[in-house]
Structures
1.
Amino acid sequence: MLQNLLISSFTFIDTLMIGQLGSIQIAAVGLANQIFFVTILFFFGLGSGASVFIAQYWGKRDIPSIHTAMGVALIFAVLGALLVSAVSLLFPHHIMRLFTADKAVIDFGVSYLKIIAVSYVFTAISFIFATSLRSIERATYPLIATAFSLCINVLFNYLLIFGKAGFPAMGVAGAALATAVSRGLEMVLMLLITYRMKTPVAAHIRHYLSFDLPFLKRYFKTALPVLINELAWSFGMVAYKMVYARMGTDVIASANVSEAIQSLFFVIFIGTGNASAVMIGKKIGEQRYDEAQLYGKRFLLLPVLMGIGIGTAMAIFAPQVTRAYNLEPEIIEITKRSLRMLALLIPIRGITIHAIIGVLRSGGDTRHALLLEASGVWGIGVPMAIIGGLILKLPIYYVYLMVGTEEVYKAILSLKRFYSGRWLNDLTEEPPVPQSQVISSSGTEIP
């Protein structure tokens, strides 16, 4: 939870500090970061696919197989990062024009993209190592690296955005440079901690490259649906931003602020969702399947109880945070109303993140998770955004509520899938053992 709070704080602090420059700059950085948003979810898909294996192998204490799963994720994450960096550096104007026709927004966005693109490889390596460390119950180490990176980011934001202590006032470009430097140093610290502490994920590079074709097929049979899932979801989020940008520069500026503030409240579910995946996956690897089923039930009840409190706190306190931004009064008012609407959806979103990321994926049921996520975003969410924002021309806060119906759909069907019992698969067995053949540790088949 703490690490995800710090990760969300990156976005919040960047938005807050860039917000002192004006709404156009906020809109530009928010749109330019959509390419990174898709990229980080590509890393998340690879990391989540690897973590399904790593958590189950950790239950068996099969360290060589952990290194093999990590190696596949690292190779494809770095290759993906290099590709996106090249596209961002070569075609920044084309990327920005996908979102807006506002020349000022495009120009600021291009200046941001050209610098931030160099940081994607750093993030790829840090992300896979952080995910792997969490999957073997070493969550403190990524937290330390992220906390250090955040401090560096805040310091250099202050120096480079506003030109303090003799540094040039670079504005939006300064924010990009600060983020790139902080991500590079985070990667260095992550690797130092991993190897100096002699953690189980530390290995010689040849061990990461020790996978063979049969393992690669097994890996992608489970991990590819996760990767497609994250890309389908991330492109859906980009589609939302395209709709919001076409609703006006004021609307997209408000949306960027609303989502940055919302993420500070939602990090609890990100943390508990990832924790549930590790804990359930470990029990499956230990072949304690009845306990895995019990943990799943508890982790699906938890977000309901937590969501009520978190949603209430967000509705009450989050609007007050908007006063820290240097925005026009009408944008502030739109943002306050948006945050109240988003607060209503917090408990339902908590259920879906626990069900899809925590339960279904940990049991290897990644294809069903993909079906739920992709059909929810593209079958319900995106059409609702287009209808509400571009056809009916409703205010953004009502569009948020319409888009939120996809969360209701995913929550209902994911709970149905869990109680069917077909989500639990032991991936450490060769071939993987489905739930219908799984025998619990007490010697009875799970109903």
2.
Amino acid sequence: MIRRLALVAATALVVLGGMVRAQSRPVLRDDDVVARVNGTPIYRKAVREVVQETLSRQDEDPTPATIGKLVEAAQNSLIALALLHQESQARGMKVSDRAVEEEIARSRARFPDPNAFQEALAAKGMDEATLRQDTRQTLAVNQLLEQVVWKDVRIDTAQIQRYYETHRREFTHPAQVRVSRILVRVPAHATTAERDAARQQANALLTRLHAGADFTQLARESSQDVASAANGGDIGYFSRGEMDPAFEQHVTTLPPGSVSGVVQTPYGFEIIKVTGRRGGGELPLAQVQERIRGVLTAARKQEREAAFVAQLRQKSKVELLDPVAP
């Protein structure tokens, strides 16, 4: 959770658009300090960027109440990030220049060319020096989490068995198809020019696949569905009626291993690959135990992280200086 939000704050190259704001409110500047963590300022700009990244992955217009909750969550996440970074420095944790450059290279690879990467940095008001600084902070936090907070998180066979027995319905399914996707996202209120540019980008990715590019690698580098991109585009198994109709129409006709053309869905333009099919029934424990282990591990890590941050916050000076409005 912290790692994702930290990377959003450091490298999510999205400019905040029209947030909901009452006409009578004063202008809220990006450089307003909304909180201090042991003297370290947290700026409204950082909060806005985290919120906007979250909103960019949603397909419905948010209500003011939704935005308010996202803003509060973003501020708390940035406070947690500051506390964790300060603790990593207090413990003397170091991040090598090579690790920083490798992380930036992975971010750069998600853009079609170097110019697009530089334009995104400029649009966000960042240069590469600032990006390196933010990335170094993020990696230091990750190091603290891995080496201290999560170091003894283990899930044993008995825990997996108990989860399986108490959630058996989750592992009973009708006939299903396993799907991977490469998504070029189109905002809900995109202009014609923006939509055309997204379609062209999707067509260019399809051309690369036809030329022999590996689907999994291309999804990691280029898909704008962050969650599935990390898994090489894999979004798991679906049964009939669980997918968007336009998506499902192509999935039902593709044999395993084949790739669709560019498909327009409510999310944008997609390239779909069917990677497997299976009949209905109950999945045996052996087939799902690693999935269960992942679920239980993530939950345990989140619990440990929340408790650790709470301890840090209790012994720190956290000042909330200004109402965090969008």
3.
Amino acid sequence: MANSNPKKETQARLLIADDDQWLLESMAQWLIGEGYSVQTANSIEQTTKTLAKESFDLLLCDVRFDDGDGIALLRKVRKRFPHLPVLMMTGYAGPDAARESVAAGAFELLTKPIIDDELQTAIVRALQQKDITDENERLKEALDRRFGLESIISHDLRMLKIFEMIDNVADSRASILITGENGTGKSMIARAIHKKSSRRNAPFVEVACGALPDTLLESELFGHMAGSFTGATHNKVGKFHLSDKGTLFLDEIGTATQALQVKLLRVLQELQFEPLGGTETITVDTRTILATNENLDIAVAEGRFRQDLFYRVNVIHIELPSLRERPDDIPLLAEHFLRTACKEFARDVQGFTCSAMKTMQAHAWPGNIRELENVIQRAVLLTKARNIDCEALPRSVLGASNSHAQTGTGPLNFFHAMPPSQVPSLDSLSNPTPAIHQTLNEALEGPERQIILEVLKANDWNRNVSADRLGINRTTLYKKMKKLGIESLAP
């Protein structure tokens, strides 16, 4: 029997399986009246054939049939249709039947005679659980697409070789070291490795080592016990423990202190550690991926990075090329970011003019892919034409020769961010006097501090937004705030 209620545009499709024909028809009629689309089956064989031909949102199934066992059917359904919720029905209720049904994968066991309200409540709960499961699957698929290799766009030969290497090493337990300039996509590569591996369903945990003070980083990685240091009021589980069976990504590993490097070496070798203030040894199965924009060979030579740890983390080395080394990828990436920005900001921008694309390909992109994405987002918001032209690009991309054509609408106007007393006069610019009392770095610290401070204030001290606005990554912003004495001014 198949039917539907015209009162509902979207209906849940139910299959009722029972060899009691009177019960089958009366339940079907009542559920149709409640707005469901209902189909019936009066045997194990008919139920199996119906499920093979059509899709349903819920199965209501009797425990006993003349031609077989409903529990055995339940096990087959759960194996073949894992996301289909099943409500079991029985006239022989007992604790053993309930346990057996739930153990076999039933959402719930209902006892005959079934009360209408009880049936309706069970169906609603089961369908809501199915909706949650389906949504989680959609989100997981979206994350897989976003962080899988499919989301890393490139035609560059070096990047294609990196993709091949990821395929080869994804399931290896060896540590991986990813190096490259800021903004080249180290975090995305780490996530792609995780998604390609057999650990994909386990946690992926990321730690920005450079963003945490030395005293907190050890607690963040290994956890601590209550009372182990001032302010430790409760036990904390560390990131190595949280990423058990999964992947731990340690970004900016070059900032780790010598003392922490010793502990890292042990956990990478033995997969064991003790929380701060604790005596119990914790064993984990964590795959570690590390990243840095530093040259660790130089750091080892200068004694800032332990040689034994370097050999341990450098088993598999992935070096990401900068964006200026792969100019042929700029049009590809720009088009991708354009489509994404248009969708996010509800804008209708078709593409780029030839001059704008040539200008972008000629730019050095010190902020790499992150900088390109920010520039495209800005251009999409500013342009009123169907195609992005040079006038929508910031002065930093246009270069010194074109800077006169730009107004103060770029991501950051250097002189505008300086207080009036520090803005150089035209005379001083045309007749510069050599600075003899300060180094160049010292002379630049004042304007740099003022720029960072104004951007932080303009964004309510949101570090992530401010870092994007400045065209630097979050770790670099934290370091500069600490160096320039801005950190203490934060509310």
4.
Amino acid sequence: MITSLTSESIQDIQADAIVVGLSGNALTGFAAELNEATSGGLQSLLDAGQAKSKVGATTSWLQPTGIQAPVIVTVGLGDTPNAGDCFKAAGAAAKILADQQRSSVAFYFPELDSALLESAVAGSVVGSQGQDLHKKTKSLYPPEQILWASTNADAVTAGENIATGVNLTRTLVNQPPNYIYPESFADQAAELGQLKNVSVEIWDQERLEAENCGSLLGVAQGSDKAPRLAILRYTGKDSENPSLAIVGKGVTYDSGGLSLKPSEGQKTMKCDMAGAATVVGTIKAIAEMELPCHVVGLVGLVENMVSGNSYRLGDVLTARNGKTIEVLNTDAEGRLVLADVLDVTLGLNPDHIVDLATLTGACCVALGLDIAGLFTNDQSWCDQIIQSAAAVGEEVWQLPMTPHFSDQLKSKIADLRNIGAGRWGGAITAAKFLEEFVGDASWTHMDIAGPAFADSAKSYIDGGASGVMVRTLVNIARGM
């Protein structure tokens, strides 16, 4: 797919389809141009309630008089659109038009500032890609070319680069677990080393053993697939230490281990590496944009499987930082993986750390399926993330890290236990466990268990992986 600019008018352009954004009640700009070219046809649609300016509301208009293109889709942007509105509106229109193969689709939105245009472009690219990676007949067909009626080439290019990162994350998560496992994921991550200012280091099992990553290795030992740890460094500016470290949980398949999940619970467990995939997608987008920052991404990659060599309830694992962990649930494995990866991260001396993980069902219970939970030991750092998410239209909510939750993690025979003492506050006790492995570093944990993967499609994006938080993290990196 190629995204580029066009200066052709709505009535003259030869695109296979045109998208026109509607904002507010008055017809101005491109909407007014369309109305004039169609002899008042757009106003008639609005008067009849067939076309609407509500965010994401779409109307398909076939063979409009006075227009060369055979299809027009109008899409609502709302009265005062924000970045999230623009992303969803463009995604909704693109998704409708991806129902069949098209050579080109042209977008005519009202004049937008750089941030809003960038979000709209990203939405148009993300909305047209589906999860149908292994279907002979596709569900969605991205157009060969997306055209934007704008003079802001930088924003259009940035929007496409961000979307490329989002879609890489989605593709990694949507791939089935016989395609994506620790070694193959690491191979995909290594390909980013071809990008400017990116270097990739892969730790194999021998290196992980030499580094005393006993917590991560404990989770991995039940699988025939060997674990990996990938370190992706982006050096867009010359600084000794990274300003930002992004850490991702990469459980490429989670059976639950001996604490076996029921069949229904396992069906979507290919998505348990969404945190790691988000790291890879973010580094790709940052590198493609050539941002002037120093960012490192780290992902711990394992399968959590059942065999005669699986780690057991009651086992005691020794993490890389020397802390011992009593295992009381083998399905609370993501925190065990992240424990060692976070300790590796500390050795890189980043200014700030953010980790992402599909960590707990408890966070879904607390916040639903569209909002990521935030947990922090540094309020000012967490505030930056909250502001960044709001700026791009992604939803987050901070949960407390009250000290008494740590009491639930006390073990009688080890330094820690890997689950809380009861079912309540499970997302918080999981975060408190991770806090034991970040020392005094500035750190925020993102539990993306809800929004990372959807069973069904939304108007602006196909079902499956969402690529959530890539846009937020890119926005954070811009300020580093």
